[in-house]
Amino acid sequence: MINKSAQIEENKEGYREIKITVFRYNSQNKDAKPEYQTYKLVETPGMTLYIALIKIWSTMDHNLSFDFVCRAGICGSCSMVVNGKPKLACKTRTSEFEDGKITLLPLPTFKHIKDLSVDTGNWMNAMSKKMESWIHTKEVTDIAAIEKPVEPDVAQAVFELDRCIECGICLAACSTKVMKEDFVGAVGLNRVARFSIDPHDERTDEEFYELIGDDDGVFGCMSLMGCEDHCPKDLPLQTKIAYMRRKMVKV
Ligand code: SF4
Ligand code: FES
Known about the structure:
Helix content is 32%, strand content 14%. It is of the alpha+beta class. A five-stranded mixed β-sheet has the order 2-1-5-3-4. A hairpin with a 2-residue loop joins β6 and β7. It is elongated. The N and C termini lie far apart (52 Å). The structure holds iron/sulfur cluster and FE2/S2 (inorganic) cluster. FE2/S2 (inorganic) cluster binds next to loops.
């Protein structure tokens, strides 16, 4: 491990100093070698890992790569492994780490780009296509017609599963995914569960079975709970996987 360090400012306010160690590697450069780099900085009140990384990037190291868009736990792009656990960096406060030592690694299972940046987008896009993530109906849409009413409890149940932000944390926390490269993970199974309870979708259980009725789908999950334990949106992933498994067993 190669450690470099840098000090960004004097601690005038009496705040503690924290150390952030970051995995550095450029997958695009065939001559590059992976290493760790440690940055020292002064923790400010309410500091998130997003704020800390922006501070490092803007004052110490313009070459550090990481992904952010919304800074509010909505876009799902800032997932990374923080002291061994996959988390959203924008929703993780540095004060959670009592000893002030934080190690950041890129999310596993996705294509690595550089440093903390990985390509979740192409994986999610391929998963969406594979799970046929759109309403299947023979009805011709009449945009002038009044929308069909949906029972509030059904609409709420669909909305609950639609809260997935495609952050990839459930896959990073999943041991099955490590063993089965093509496993669709909780994010894929949750997607199918979402359409299976949507009254607008006319697909049968037999049709859903074609999508997830194998070891890369609902029968591959070993119920290790890593997905639900780490999902930043608290989605009921294991309940929905069990629900789909019960349906698929009957096909
Ligand atoms: S199910 Fe949860 S952990 Fe998985 S991608 Fe969606 S929001 Fe992220
Ligand atoms: S930056 Fe969007 S979820 Fe963190």
